[in-house]
Design a protein that fits this description.
By secondary structure, the protein is α/β, with parallel strands linked by helices. Strands 1, 2, 3, 4, 5, 6, 7, 8 and 9 form a nine-stranded mixed beta sheet that branches. Helix 1 packs parallel to helix 2, helix 10 runs antiparallel to helix 11 and helix 11 packs across helix 14. The N and C termini lie far apart (44 Å).
Length: 352
């Protein structure tokens, strides 16, 4: 079958010189050649901009935009506005894609007459790789897809824009853009908006997107004082999305409650990180504020918290035993800094 559909590949770039050559080369070397490659240099202060200009001379399909540093959401939105293709693919500048990824995505979305294709994510760690997929392969109505994946509806497989192929017409006609006012979970919210506008989803574990977890982890290391605010936003948007799809009449939300209860309690541990910028009093006031809602407390009490140590953190929190909580977190931080002991700790408590 002769396919003459163009895929616009949008790459937001900020200070990625170490990985950028590999990323761009993986795109220009795709087995499917009808690509509209858009490189958005979002105010890089390293050699990323020069690399973009250099690669534009190598491949005429590449278009380059140099902008002020407005953030990844603004860069992706600019790419969407510029896109000429019938389909849109996002690639992060520190990742790379296998040579046949675009061809596979396009074949599946056309063959299945789907509105969205979701593939796996191959997490590239320093000494290992791990692939994650949606639960079941196949073509699904939106509500059937949600039912099959309700236990992971808000996770990175659903949330990432990189392991997907979108229809440009849906994005542009519905004005679906990334929210530039937030800097956490904006990818997930974009996908909720897109999912809410479509009918059919095709998911496959036959191929994956290469996700550079080493770099992503290093970028996420800086302590965030707004961690609870971000978690609350994710929770409220997830519930709103499910309710809009009338899923409350079709499924039990317990898996969602388990997931977010674990996230909320994990944030208690998070604000006790060794690099926390919060004082002891600020931590305690923040906890008092975040867990003053009886509904949130009931949800957590009725949920299964994993890993196991979160149950102990929640036990101490409910009883306002902040001194013991602080000591426990300091001990765990010390263990985490010793890689050998931390690996043993994870094995004992079956942490992932």
């Amino acid at each position: 079958m002769l396919i003459n559909k163009t895929i616009s590949v949008i790459v937001p770039i900020f200070n990625s010189e170490k990985h950028l050559y590999k990323c761009i080369r993986s795109i220009i070397n795709q087995t499917y050649s009808l690509l509209d490659i858009i490189l958005i240099n979002d105010g890089s202060t390293d050699n990323s901009g020069k690399i973009c200009d250099e690669m534009r001379k190598v491949d005429k399909r590449i278009r380059v935009v140099h902008s002020k540093n407005n953030g990844v959401s603004s860069a992706r939105n600019l790419g969407i506005d510029m896109a000429r293709g019938e389909f849109i693919k996002f690639v992060d500048s520190d990742d790379f894609i296998n040579p046949d990824l675009c061809e596979n995505l396009l074949n599946d979305i056309l063959k299945e007459d789907a509105d969205l294709v979701i593939c796996g994510l191959k997490f590239l760690h320093e000494h290992s790789t791990k692939v994650k997929n949606v639960k079941v392969d196949g073509l699904f109505s939106l509500n059937h897809f949600i039912r099959e994946n309700i236990d992971r509806i808000s996770n990175i497989i659903i949330g990432s824009p990189c392991n997907k192929l979108y229809k440009a017409s849906i994005i542009k006609e519905r004005n679906i853009l990334f929210d530039t006012d937030i800097n956490y979970a904006e990818d997930l919210l974009f996908n909720y908006r897109y999912l809410g506008a479509i009918n059919k989803v095709f998911s496959t574990s036959n191929y994956s997107y290469n996700y550079n977890r080493i770099v992503k982890n290093s970028l996420a290391q800086k302590f965030r004082e707004d961690c609870f605010e971000s978690s609350n936003l994710m929770y409220s948007q997830t519930i709103s999305f499910l309710d809009r799809q009338k899923m409350n009449k079709l499924i039990d939300y317990s898996a969602v409650y388990n997931r977010f209860s674990t996230l909320f309690v994990s944030q208690i541990e998070y604000i006790y990180r060794s690099d926390s910028t919060l004082s002891r009093k600020q931590r305690e006031l923040l906890i008092e504020k975040e867990f003053s809602d009886p509904q949130k407390i009931t949800m957590i009490n009725n949920s299964k918290l994993r890993p196991f140590h979160l149950n102990f953190i929640w036990f101490l929190t409910k009883r306002r035993l902040y001194t013991i909580l602080s000591i426990f977190c300091r001990i765990k931080n010390s263990i985490k800094e010793n890689q050998t002991i931390f690996n043993l700790y994870k094995k004992v408590f079956k942490e992932v």
